[in-house]
Amino acid sequence: MIRIAQKGDVQALTRLATETYTDAFGKSMTAAELAAHLEANLSESRIETFVLEDVVLVAEWEGQMVGFVHLSDINTPVQTPVSQSKKLRKLYVHQDFQNKGIGSALLAAALEHPLLKEATYVYLEVWERNIKAQRLYKRYGFEVVDQHRFILPSGAEADFDYIMVRRAAPEMGHDGQSRC
Ligand SMILES: CC(C)(COP(=O)(O)OP(=O)(O)OC[C@H]1O[C@@H](n2cnc3c(N)ncnc32)[C@H](O)[C@@H]1OP(=O)(O)O)[C@@H](O)C(=O)NCCC(=O)NCCS
Known about the structure:
- The protein has helices at 10-25, 31-41, 44-53, 102-112, 114-117, 131-139; strands spanning 2-4, 55-61, 64-73, 85-93, 121-127, 143-151, 157-167.
- It is α+β, with helices and mostly antiparallel strands.
- The chain has one domain: 3-Layer(aba) Sandwich (Aminopeptidase), CATH 3.40.630.30.
- Strands 1-2-3-4-5-7-6 form a seven-stranded mixed sheet, with helices on both faces.
- A hairpin with a 2-residue loop joins strand 2 and strand 3.
- The N and C termini lie far apart (38 Å).
- Bound molecules: coenzyme A.
- Coenzyme A (COA) binds at residues 20, 24, 91-93, 98-104, 126, 130, 132-133, 135-136.
- Coenzyme A (COA) is lined by residues 20, 24, 91-93, 98-104, 126, 130, 132-133, 135-136.
C-alpha cells in the first residue's frame, strides 16, 4: 500500500531513512562523514520538514513501513530550470524489502502524484556508482543530462552525482519546449 506520509510517521520515516542510507552509502564515507550527513539531511527535524512542507509517499508491506519517496520543488544545480520543474529527492526502500517491486511502485506513484504529473521536467540526482537506481530511473523515462560533484560535510570532494531528467510527454500539452 502506498499513502501520503503524516506527521505521526516522522519517527518511523527517520529510522527507515537512516538504516537504508547507512546500508546503501555508509561504506563510501568515514563514520564521521556518515554521522554528519545523517544529521544534516535525515534527522527527525529534516524529515518532519519534508513531510509538512513537501510531499512524502510511504510504502507499507504487511503493516510495516518499508520505503518512501520525497517530492518537492526543484533545488538541483541545473543551468536553466524552466517553470514547472520539480524534483524527486529521495527514493529509499529498506534493504530487507528490495527487489520486490516496491521501488518501482513508489516511483510510479510519485510520477502520478499531481506535483510531478503536472511538471514539465522532473529532475533527480543519483550517485554515479548507483547503477541499480539508474536502471530503475531509465525504465521510467529519466535520462542523464549533467553531473556535479557530491561534497561531503567536511568539504571534501567525493564522486559525481548524475543529474537525470524526465520530460513531460509532448501530448500532455505543456509549453512546447520538449517538442524538438
Ligand atoms: C534503488 C531502490 C530504491 C530500488 O528499490 P527496489 O524496491 O529494490 O526496486 P524494484 O524492486 O522495483 O526493482 C529492483 C530490481 O528488482 C527487480 N524486481 C522487481 N520486482 C521483482 C520481483 N517481484 N521479483 C524479482 N525481481 C523483481 C526489478 O526488475 C529490478 O531489477 P534490476 O535491478 O535488474 O533492474 C532501492 O534499491 C534502494 O532504496 N536503494 C538504496 C537507496 C538508493 O539507492 N536510493 C536511490 C538513490 S537516488
